[in-house]
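Hey, I was hoping to borrow your eyes for a little while. I've been staring at a protein lately and its backbone has me curious. You're getting the sequence in one-letter code plus the fold written as tokens. Would you mind checking whether the tokens look sensible for this chain? Here's the protein in full, and shout if anything looks odd to you:
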Amino acid sequence: MPRKPSSLVEGVHLAAKLADLKEDHYRVLLAVSAVTELLIDKGLLTREELERKAESLERELNGLISASLHPMA
């Protein structure tokens, strides 16, 4: 079944939005990386502290996700 023109236009718009999100994601990641490197270079934190914090936040997030997917009755 052929697609409707409006579906094609919607697909193009969706692809453009995705490209914009990817660009935004790249810029945020670049800024976070730069700030992280500056903090490490200035001796305000170590890579080990950063890794421990990231692991802690990941465990916390996984716990929240698990709890929301499997609420207690």
The helical segments are 5-41, 47-69. Residues 5-41 form the longest helix (37 residues).
